[in-house]
Amino acid sequence: MNTNRLEAFSDGVFAIAITLLVLEIHIPEPGSGRLSDELAAQWPSYAAFFISFLTIGIIWINHHAMLRRLARADHSILIWNLFLLMTVSILPFTTALMAQYLKESEGESLAAGIYAGSFLLMGLVFAGMQRHILFRRTVLLAREIDQQARSRVLRLAALGIVPYVLATAVAIVSPYLSIAICGAVAVYYALPLASSASAAIEPPPA
Length: 206
Known about the structure:
Order of helices and strands: HHHHHHHHHH
Shape: elongated
Number of helices: 10
């Protein structure tokens, strides 16, 4: 099938997921306390929103670059894409969970671990889809890409998984450190140099 429909459907899922993130940031009830204090108390929600918004945005950019390398998509690529969109769709839930429990005295480590783990799962599926497209479905590519360039793309995708493994593991020790790692990854990949390197292969002109 043409990749235009695949990309349009995926963009819709990305847009919904990224929009749902803001629902965790609540407007304080009048009379519940000083507005400035009530707003400041929601800092875990702000941090979670920033990290998740940036991460979903980066995945959307790289997803766009990945699909533009394709001339068409077959059934296996559609299935991979569905699994990737599933991992994106659960991020509003894991974001809300982390924001809710971060300042609690119980459950905060598990919430942070689930949060980091959801990024890890998304990274694994994204890398798996990259590998499937670049090494198992080369006949579907819009243009020929040499082995070295394909390996570079996959290597960069795999390297992005490493900090999420670390963030998931350290959540049991320090939820704040776990979230800081996730935030650092999001900020790093948002930088122009990192974002251009993550694409690694320029897609053909539209």
